[in-house]
Amino acid sequence: MKLIFSTHNQGKIKEMREILTGLPWEILSAEEAGVFEDVMEDGETLAENSLKKARFIVEKTGEWGVADDSGFFIDALDGRPGIYASRWLGEGLKDEEKARLTLKKIEEIPEGQRGGYFESVVALVSPQKEEFLFSGKVLGQVAKELRGQGRTNLPYDLIFIPNGFAETFAEMSDQQKNNLSHRGLAFKKLQEFLQNYV
User: Fold this and answer.
1) I need a surface site. Which of 4, 64, 89, 179 has the fewest CB within 10 A?
2) 88: CATH
3) pTM (2 decimals)?
């Protein structure tokens, strides 16, 4: 069976394939399935955006569609950037620029008051239009500077330190990050569902 991931983000595709390894599903990106259009992410919640993208994949391909939407919520910024994490600083910025500009907005906030969290909601839609949601959340702190090796299109990995760790996501191996990240937690729930479904 085919599972088509509504993303053009190669970093996300790589993570998803690693997390869902071993399942009897062929995992394809939108492009690999012949879908090149983007869906307008105009929902007010992570769930609305992920469902909209997954439904679009099903309409275009007739296969199972999966999509995720993630947000980065910083306490000192009243929860911003939130669901607008990818575009709140403007278009065309490189990953490191996004991370640096975010740090600039909270440069006066002392350690211990730099809390925040990542949250992901994964939507799975069947060809029969059944809909399922899986979520993951990880609490942590915002670092004072960029740290680690950035992953493509995942700028905030450079500045987010999950609770209980001294390293940012960007300083962790792919496996370590996937084991505890918001997206990893949500996709593990998806994995368990898919294992029991077939």
Assistant:
1) 179
2) 3.90.950.10
3) 0.88
